[in-house]
Amino acid sequence: MILALLAAQPAPIIVTGQPLEETEAQVVLTAEDAETLSSGRVEELLARAPNLSSFRRADARSVHPTSQGLTLRGLGGNSASRVALTIDGVPQADPFGGWINFASMDPVAIDRLAIRYGADTQPGAVAGSIAIDTISRTPRTIRVAYGGDDRWDISNSGHLEIGDGYLQSSSGFLESDGFIPVVEADRGPADRAARTEQRVSRWRFVYPVAGVEAQLGAAWFTDKRDRGFDGSDNRAEGLDVSLRLVERNGPLPFELTGWWQDRQFETRFAALDEDRATTRIVLDQYDVPATGLGVEGKVDLGAARLGAGWRKNEGTVAERFFFIDSDPTRERRAGGETRIASLFGEADAGPASLSLRVDRWDISNGFRAIEQLTDGASLEDASFADRDGTQWSGRLSIAERVDDVTFSVTASRGWRLPTLNELYRPFRVGADATAANEALEPETSIGVDLGARYESDALFASATIFWQRLDDAIANVPLDTGPGLFPGVGFVSGAGTYAQRRNLDAIESQGIELAAGWQDDDFDITLLYGFADATVSASGDAAAFDGNQPAQSPRHSGSLTGGWSGGDTRLQLTARLDGTRYDDLANLEKLDAAVSFDAYARTPLHEKLALELRAENVTDAEILTGFASDGSRERARGRTFWVGLKFTP
């Protein structure tokens, strides 16, 4: 039937490179926003949004990749993302660990970034979702910038018309000697600048085939960085291949997206002595391959859409540990597979819209094995029982416009499956050790939003009051202190803490998101602010943390951006608020609030050439991102000035 419909479509068609329908969202950032970032990093773009945070404040130039999980509305920090992020319909969470490698996303490729708050109807979206659409048919543009600490940031984008379609490309290169992450007063001889070298390339070939728009995509990245001392190096590589078919104008409009992802990751962890003078390797995670693949499609029946999907993640980890005189004595391997099969539907009826999704999940082939390298003796050889279950997600919204104000109410439910990393891989950070937990249950989330939005030609303003509850929230729960032998991790010294990944009873959050903006021919200003009052509900072994604020979850966040444009000239200043948060579930390690300022300026030098000046953290504010196991403070970013050229041949 579908083949017959395809054959009946008129040709040629006008290709756009866009999805079947644009994602509706509370916050939308555009290519113009992405172009004026002082750091050139996509994390800076996300940091402007209210109530959106990553597990660490630092960006992909210095923070460990496994610390880059996103969350919304204070629903708890975790290496795994509680926000479902997609690029052109392709999920971006790491298939093994659930973190998001932002080094794979050059802002030059972003056309539209839509942030949807509250649980959403796709796997993993317990806090919300972010949909990124990439650029289409852009003119060739080359940008080169040089910054302090011997930093180079180079990117280019452009397209080539091919018949009735086009080939769009973008690429980026970043190299930096970096800044020293540890606060100056806490540094030792071993502390140095955190080095970075990152490359990313993204291609899309869009062409009409039998009346259907075919969007063939490929993206590749490599990311090498360390955390500012020897033995903290890591390397990630990734390749994504996708195909999206979009039919807009025929009798049965539809969208079908398939993807395949390959990830390779390796990292080393080192411990420093009390004076931070020397380092010694404590873990060599030398091979972490992971693969993700899936397909999802829907048909448009007018007032309703129906769809189905299937996705699979598989991954393993191989790591050497228990080092003696620089030599590892044990090796651990762990991993497994997860699958999700889905049916979903959407419907519109007057002011109401409803989305429902049913997901059948299974976890299989889980294992963990440890052997002694000296004689090959097995210390653990565990195979974990397969599990499966069914979850549902839904989102009901009702919106009514009265004069220039739109009032809305939304109720939502979402869920997230534990990652393979959370289920099967224990880990150590300094003297602390955290055990995995193969019995973790899926997280579920429910919430209610009440909103109002005013819009006129030059002004907009909106406010959303929300309540959201995350049940069975997965957290690293401290259970004991060393010295001693503990299940799943072995020996923990007297300086360390033993923890395990556990399902907390819940995390409950309520608060508000505010947005306002004004623009005339020359000036513009945008305010984004969020307040999220989140607390932990815990019992049993975690009862000591009941009533605490979730780790790495600020109560206040947002940004204020003002700018002036005159022709091709642009001047812009952004103030960012990083609210107070805690680095631990016990709320003992407080990270103070910080306000930082970023600046951007562009002025034409020639018809095709412009000068760009950028300044990150102009006042060199101390923005703490966490505490090392020895108590030393780590900062997110320092002050950096950039000078660059933008060339449009």
UniProtKB/TrEMBL annotation:
Pfam families recorded: Plug, TonB_dep_Rec_b-barrel
Bias type Polar residues, positions: 549-559
KW Transport (keyword) present: yes
Domain TonB-dependent receptor plug: from-to ranges: 24-121
Chain coiled-coil ranges: none
Organism per entry: Sphingomicrobium sediminis
The protein, known as: TonB-dependent receptor
Similarity section: Belongs to the TonB-dependent receptor family.
GO biological process entries: siderophore transmembrane transport
Gene Ontology cellular component list: cell outer membrane
Higher taxonomy: Bacteria, Pseudomonadati, Pseudomonadota, Alphaproteobacteria, Sphingomonadales
